[in-house]
Amino acid sequence: MARSFLGWALPGLFFTIGFGFAACLGSADPMGEDCEPTTSGPGAGGNGGTGGAGGNGGGSAGAGAQSTGDPETSENGSNNFHHPMDPTQAGQDDPFEILKKRAAEGPPEIRTRLHSCSKMTYAALGDLLTTRGVDLNKMAAAGQPPTAGQLYKSAATKDSLGVANFDARMGESYFYTISAAAKVLDIFIQAAPEIIQNIENAEECKINGVGNPMFDAATGRCVYNSLSCIMGRPATEDDMDLCNLMIEQANKADPKDLANKRALTVAAFLSAAHTCE
Length: 277
Hints:
10 helices
């Protein structure tokens, strides 16, 4: 006699259900709902962070590292956050969580600026500095901070900026990390005095063969053409207002304070223009 469809299907269905129960009951860990391990049981908790004891590593995750093998995550979760080298790095966040973050960041014209800025290459950074009046071969005197050129050429800078390692078949990184952006700002701060001193003679900043100083000799205010040149785009009215406001904070009676404020102003505009800050 031919067996009905239900007659064929029932044995397989019972086998599947029985196999599932056997898998739950056969585990050494105590099971809760949906065969999920409970957080209590014999033995100390595993590498779950600072959570309490749990059965064979089943303790709840604490405030420690997201992954003990993740070099980009600090074990101190109270003062750091995860900052991947590449925004397309797989396995970092749930796609729906990423979507929520993007929605909280604002409209597309804001989000695209936050997430579309690639890192200036190491070679391009060197070209920018030299064409704005920085001598990359200049050495600091004994006991003095390193020059912009020394910072630029240091091995630590190359590591921070993700310079290509051809022996390891690794290309240069495309995006800024926290350390890369901070290192570039360090270089800009050290380069600013040289830029202020030499920008009038920089060929790339001349108009019809005539250069302009960074600050007007008579008024001390920022010069439009020079500010535009260091940013690589025409300075806006807001740029000029902010530049002059920063300079006005200096003590005019203290030449050292004025020089420091001018250097910080130039470095701030360089960083804002070239690291998407």
